[in-house]
Amino acid sequence: MPQSTTWPNAVHRSLPDLLCWLDGLRRRGQVHRDDRQRCWHVLGHPEANAVLADHRSFSSDLRDLLPRREDLAEDDLPDEMELFQRGNFVRLDPPEQHRLRGLASRAFTPRTVAGLAPRIAEVTTELLDATGGRTRLELIDDLAYPLPVIVIAELLGLPAADRPMFRRWADALFDREVTDPEQPLTELAAANTRTAGPVLREMNAYLLDRIRACRAHPGDDLIGRLVQVEADGQRLADEEIVGFVGLLLLAGHITTTATLGNAVLALDEHPGAVAELRAEPALLPAAIEEVLRLRTPFPRLVRRAVTDTRVGDEVIPAGAVVTIWLTAANRDERVFADPDRFDPRRAPNPHLAFGHGVHFCLGAPLARLEARTALGILLDRYSDIAVATDAPVRHRDPWTMVSVNSLPLDVHSR
Ligand code: HEM
């Protein structure tokens, strides 16, 4: 296993480095305490499932991991963090999480989402038409980034034209390098607070502006409905809507961008699978699930133990920080036969890329539809798609997110 002192700069780290490091962790037990990182690691699939299913014992509220206000400089903007956290229900526990999630859930049911299919296909086609028949595509810039951001911005009622700004925020928040993967999570959280502060300030101000404008003239979009909604007899405060909309805006595109890039990379590595998909397009949804299993965008989730709880053979004590490695759980050989093999026909495929339990990804139906539509159109339109060999593929730091930032492709139209 590589030693932390020899870690190269994160830009040189790749998914195989993460997998090798996780194999080393797994040898210490599917559930074990790590003194250096001062946390518990959960690597096995049944164990990860159990932790994620038990929100009473494992809280998503990590506020007390953040640095204390008195330890921060003025510029670190603890208030901005707090403002963003108010409606950011992925970091809240029930009943608060349940109340806020309920307000958005109607917009994301499989049925409502299915109604977006024509628009998703239309945007995909427009974006590919805009490449003007070029034979060199930059998958992320040309399609994988703009498609989901246009869709989520339209759902929320934010101008899609502001997307360069959204991308800057997402990059600042998700392109962080984990300088030492074995550093304690509390230190990581402190460093993140410092770098995230200025971006959150800009994002909060922008969203507050949009929310206030919307209160004056509510439209028929999600922000318009949120400003009018009464939840438990109370109106949502503008400040509460900020984190809520920010969560949907960021979660609603960055992961789908990652999945489209990851799918094209996986297919490039498995030409046999591409031939199968072309011959049998009905396989596409299962192939996308397999991409999510093997290139899980969020490699880990974090929880805080509330009570002493047995997980597998260990008892995780109250107060412990718990890192649930989705990347490792999704390759658990006790659940997935031949776990490193890309099998577009794998069934069942109970991967945890969308999480599990009360926080199960709200946008999963949308992400699946976007991925299916965009990949289906790509395969239809181009008889040949190959990752370019004369230009770099840029990866994000896989400890933060398994995704590419740029993916040059050579394509040939039918
Ligand atoms: C392939 C794409 C996606 C992946 C891999 C993904 C992954 C995840 C994961 C792992 C969680 C659980 C977090 C936790 O338990 O702490 C989550 C939650 C969430 N996701 Fe996604 N996501 C994707 C796409 C989307 C999209 C398109 C949206 C659109 C709105 C979205 C919105 C959300 C929201 C709002 C939550 C929080 C749910 C809650 O806390 O109740 N995600 N996602």
Descriptive overview:
This protein is α+β, with helices and mostly antiparallel strands and 414 residues long. The chain has one domain: Cytochrome p450 (Orthogonal Bundle), CATH 1.10.630.10. The chain is 49% helix and 12% strand. The chain contains 16 helices and 14 strands. A five-stranded mixed beta sheet has the order 1-2-10-7-3, sandwiched between helices. Strands 4-14-11 form a three-stranded antiparallel beta sheet. It has a two-stranded antiparallel sheet with strand order 5-6. Strand 1 and strand 2 form a beta hairpin. Helix 6 packs across helix 16 and helix 9 packs antiparallel against helix 10. It is globular, with a radius of gyration of 21 Å. It starts with 14 loop residues before the first helix and ends with a strand. The N terminus is likely disordered. Protoporphyrin IX containing FE binds next to helix 4, helix 12 and helix 16.
- How would you sum up the global shape? globular
Main sheet: strand order: 1-2-10-7-3
Strand content: 5-15%
- CATH fold node name: Cytochrome p450
| Model regions low in confidence, pLDDT < 50 over at least 5 residues | 1-6
**How many β-strand runs?**
14
Tell me which ligands are bound: protoporphyrin IX containing FE
The CATH architecture designation is Orthogonal Bundle
**What proportion of the residues is helical, as a percent range?**
40-55%
As for the number of domains, it is: 1
